[in-house]
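During the second year of the project, the team shifted from modelling isolated chains to modelling whole assemblies. The rationale, set out in the original proposal, was that interfaces cannot be judged from single-chain predictions alone. As a representative example for this report, we include one of the complexes processed in the last quarter. Its constituent sequences, exactly as entered into the pipeline, are reproduced here:
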Amino acid sequence: MPLTNKQKIVNDPIYGFITIPNSLIYDLIQHPYFQRLRRISQMGLSYLVYPGAHHTRFHHALGAMHMMQKAIEVLRFKEVEISKEEENALLIAILLHDIGHGPFSHAMEHSIVEVHHEEISLLFMNKLNQEFDGKLSLAIKIFKGEYHRKFMLQLISSQLDMDRMDYLKRDSFYSGVAEGNINSDRLIQMMNVVDDVLVMEEKGIYSIEKFLTSRRLMYWQAYLHKTSLVAELILTKTLKRAKELLNKGIEIECSKPFHYFMSNKVTSADFNDDLLNTFSQLDDFDIISALKSWQFHNDYILSSLSKMIINRDLLKIKLDSEKFPKELTDTYIQKISEKWNVSKQDAEFFVFKGKIKNQAYNKDAEPIRILKKDRTIEDVVEASDQLNLKALSKPVIKYYICYPKQLVEN
Amino acid sequence: MPLTNKQKIVNDPIYGFITIPNSLIYDLIQHPYFQRLRRISQMGLSYLVYPGAHHTRFHHALGAMHMMQKAIEVLRFKEVEISKEEENALLIAILLHDIGHGPFSHAMEHSIVEVHHEEISLLFMNKLNQEFDGKLSLAIKIFKGEYHRKFMLQLISSQLDMDRMDYLKRDSFYSGVAEGNINSDRLIQMMNVVDDVLVMEEKGIYSIEKFLTSRRLMYWQAYLHKTSLVAELILTKTLKRAKELLNKGIEIECSKPFHYFMSNKVTSADFNDDLLNTFSQLDDFDIISALKSWQFHNDYILSSLSKMIINRDLLKIKLDSEKFPKELTDTYIQKISEKWNVSKQDAEFFVFKGKIKNQAYNKDAEPIRILKKDRTIEDVVEASDQLNLKALSKPVIKYYICYPKQLVEN
Amino acid sequence: MPLTNKQKIVNDPIYGFITIPNSLIYDLIQHPYFQRLRRISQMGLSYLVYPGAHHTRFHHALGAMHMMQKAIEVLRFKEVEISKEEENALLIAILLHDIGHGPFSHAMEHSIVEVHHEEISLLFMNKLNQEFDGKLSLAIKIFKGEYHRKFMLQLISSQLDMDRMDYLKRDSFYSGVAEGNINSDRLIQMMNVVDDVLVMEEKGIYSIEKFLTSRRLMYWQAYLHKTSLVAELILTKTLKRAKELLNKGIEIECSKPFHYFMSNKVTSADFNDDLLNTFSQLDDFDIISALKSWQFHNDYILSSLSKMIINRDLLKIKLDSEKFPKELTDTYIQKISEKWNVSKQDAEFFVFKGKIKNQAYNKDAEPIRILKKDRTIEDVVEASDQLNLKALSKPVIKYYICYPKQLVEN
Amino acid sequence: MPLTNKQKIVNDPIYGFITIPNSLIYDLIQHPYFQRLRRISQMGLSYLVYPGAHHTRFHHALGAMHMMQKAIEVLRFKEVEISKEEENALLIAILLHDIGHGPFSHAMEHSIVEVHHEEISLLFMNKLNQEFDGKLSLAIKIFKGEYHRKFMLQLISSQLDMDRMDYLKRDSFYSGVAEGNINSDRLIQMMNVVDDVLVMEEKGIYSIEKFLTSRRLMYWQAYLHKTSLVAELILTKTLKRAKELLNKGIEIECSKPFHYFMSNKVTSADFNDDLLNTFSQLDDFDIISALKSWQFHNDYILSSLSKMIINRDLLKIKLDSEKFPKELTDTYIQKISEKWNVSKQDAEFFVFKGKIKNQAYNKDAEPIRILKKDRTIEDVVEASDQLNLKALSKPVIKYYICYPKQLVEN
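Output from the structure prediction step:
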């Protein structure tokens, strides 16, 4: 009958319940560094397309931990030995794998800090390891790829890891892009370990194919949906403008931590405890609140871009499989510069082009391995009975151009 | 084949797709007043209990409109005449019924403005009616209860309206409180109209019973869950403190619109166009950003309360069916005042009590009417074959007390 | 990596996967006695109302076993000790709890054999225990209520057992009566054991209320739906007629085992191994195939009744909270007897009345016990903050009358 | 308020409700020819793998009609004109498209009658057209491909028709093979008509890709799952044996209609009204009841094969991408013939091989057409940005061999 007073169970619409297995993990979740993830949206600005997509990195991290619990259960059922200590390390590592994400990180990884989020995750883990008397050491070792049992890292970070398992399912659930829903239960049931390497049993091959197709679909239908894309590009431009103004000594209203990162170029080397603390105060609320305020700034460019996002009145965007010619942007920039009476350089905040790329399966990265009935192991691309897995490993590139819709409407 | 360039369809994980039926409604949705609802959470601080509960009033309003479309379809199938113009008015009225909500409105209806959100909704509708050349007139007439076909108001606001139909379903979906899920499809299928009054066909009676039980459950399990409750109470206390400080001339950091409402007592009579505009700039981001900043304010009370919410490190709360004795709060206040070296008055920010009440079905309000097989009409409470509907109409009252957990832990 | 060649996992649309934990249970499932349950529909003739309701007792038994696995996991997490042997016994007992059901057992429990299905379940278990060298002994002991740890029986058979947990969920899922869906995950999470007695934690009280409302709804909306009811009543009449004909020496076409039970009155005392074997050959296919053949029998009554079910062209049925007067049936019988030129006695195959009863919670049976926060234990009816649990324990009685629709149509 | 007394709404766990739009369609559904479909399983013997897969052709036909209603609604929203009469014809045609299916038709199309089920569907439609005074004429015209508006046939029968739309979704739902779930809502939303030809809008292209992957997966994971496959092959062998015995004058027990088809070779030319009636009495119950009885026949082969299916104690089956060598079957046959003391010819009932083939998209059949943003139309394979649709149109062939498991176990 006993059950300690620390809350042990969290409701989840996808899995029913997520169990928090022990008080160390409970305490990590309670830590302000982790609670911060409640204020960071998992899908950035995608809610402008899919109004349900407001779920957070907090929720995803719990979900990924739940997937890890299932995976451990399945592997133990198949007589893969995983010690109590290893189990705990796996749960901690997956729980904290994304703790280094900043707000809107896809859009802003280079606008705010010049550091990859995984690197910051590691900084947070090390900091927490101090606070928790070294209890995270094994988790960190696994996360850094320094542990000899390779499959443990693969469960955390590979082409079929618990991270993807949860985020595809969760993003599909909350956005309502039903086609993105994967059968994570089945995928996990098909996992096994041979010589400390993660493999998938052969009868799971169609589920993997389906998983990769779902991932491909989620990229084009959600993560790279043209409306999300243009919104994130506008956000990047807005930050660029904000920095320019600060550089010129023009003041802009925003929270202190955000102001710090807008005024200072921060690289890996700069990250000491203080900076990490400042970073830990930054979340979606700083950015959106700033945009709300900047709508009324008297810099025309800053206010225009901010309004676009706040009122979802975005630039027009076109996608194509061919590059857009430089002449086209030149013409648009010329027109805008005349029409709005701004310099050509400033017009480039409203007219720009670029490319996006996605690859459902990366043949050059560590493969998804299939354990065949004859006990040999093969890359999933070879093991499939059809060419579409090969096809899925070809990268797809699309080109975009963005410009004010007034350009075409009149 | 034709389809105009205005986006006509929105993904919804609950209904699959929500269709935007015409360009007037499309333009209303695009209006900044309505887009603001994207930044107001439907369930306030409930995400501190149910981490998935981040859906917004924007999404709910679209969902309620979708339910209305279904209801109109069903009623027309049953040969209830609803003209094209009436249809449009119904859709607009339900779409805008909640547009007057401020951030965290359950907690803050009296902290920010002394005006009921329905009154503000009406102000917004009137303003939009001007902008849209009177095209909202019939919607407003229905919303104000001035239209002769009474069932139309009942579809928008009654004990079984499209608002509840959507929010129970949606809150259940996003929070994962599965028991709250109602069968809105079936409930709508059971609707009919007799003499311009909304009725439910008799065979729907068990679904109504289930609907009321679900609503009761959602109240105690989610809306009045003790953790949501204490968080909202702390939020109210925080705003109270912020106002006190401002009154004393001590500055606090927050957005301009929020500052306005913290510094001025606003009532119905004050609402002109300007004030409405200021109100329209206020959303969850202003509040949460302020709390984030206030964590570092040097007023101990303001910073303590703010941190509680931001880090989800809340006061302890107890619920009971009996009132808590005054002596108990007195003792707690005494202890806190000594321990933290604050005045008794200030200690009351941390120790307080009160009561909450819920009633699944209100017998004194307009009833849910049952159309019996013999064509007579009866209040659902009478028509049921059992006493539990009667039971559900008894209000339930619970008493709470909140205090710092340090009081009991040491 | 190892996994034996016995299939260990079964797909289930409700739970994702059901794991078969060991080879003893695997072998029990493979046994023809258990495979027979694949041919017995869980909801009898309800598919005439809900066309999806074709799921079987086989599937339900697996589902109930899965629920039991979850319950054991939760209880162990709460430090209730359950040995490996007890675990296995619990799984076997729940798996086999319904193995004694005959086809359409609600309609036919008294038409085919005069023995309660639980008694036959026990006969099957004993037989299997012989075949499996006594490995079912503990399961049987628990099932018979002879084991000292009382909660184990309660998990198998009580007002909140794994049987109900699965069948409500499953019947709701397959029929599409969404309101019947219960939150079994949450209910199980709330279970605990005190002094070897099953209790529910207090915070689960709304879920229990919801569970009882769902059960009540499933009774009136599905199990006792008037169309299911009349179909089952007609089936009972058909068997009655078939027996009469056999008694008169008139032959009827049907399978051998079915013929045996139609020609012999079987009671408890008759059940030896041979009879059990004959019984084990009986399933829905015998009954429906017989009806199909009897459509062309030259006994007017037998053929008419059989056609009604096969073509879903049923008698008219009316339900009321008041008894139907004897005069009404008399008049109908008179009319039918004239119109169809049959004796009054034969007319009674087409005109009859009776009553049905349901009680969502039985206060006289073993209660659902609530473990309150102060560690006392209370009947759920007392512990609830409202009267509707009391209301739910009042039995509801309804009266029905059935007659050919031609009586009213002309 | 009016609503006639014919039941107008059917519960469906997938779509919520299916509306029966008028009394002609209601009467068709009530017809014994259509009611028969309640007794024909949609997925044949797949329930031996997926215990939930007991849904029927009756339910599927209603579901496909529901999909058609949605498609008509979407097309009309896009200003495709569809008259009331055409609408009705479309609904009738899709409702009856599968009415000619016999029991276990994938396994038995050549064992029972030498006629394709679509041909028999047409015979039923013509018969019903007589009974219903020519009201099915337009439906029949469309079904036969004789109507000038080609898209109407495409909605009923093409590579993306309402039939597939429902059966993939339904088979996935009831079996629990979650990966087979397609987003039919979205697919239908993407439909349009140009020059009376069905097209899909370009932004639906990923959903089509997902649809084809789902279909491919359902083939290998469900329809051609090795256990379903071997069960269906055994069933075919059983019927073959039954016919041989009848030819030799040895009697076997089974229902009259089944006996007729076992004793007579029936081709297209034989189908008169009487034969159609006999065929209409045949369903799954005849087959399974016969197998149950044949378990006790004294022909060893007939009884062995029958028991295999009834007790799910099947032959061993192996699949491979290479042909199995003739020597292997020869050896197995030799062994069986010795071990069981049967002729080699009889041993072939237990040892046999063959191949199966599936193609997710058939490039030689009528294509799925994409309506591109520039208003040109292209085959989906060309329009996709990647090669995997091309890959999906390559047929996959697998070879199988079946033999008694005793052969390998000892």
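Chain A touches chain D through 28 residues (CB under 8 Å). The CA atoms of residues 191 and 200 of chain A lie 5 Å apart.
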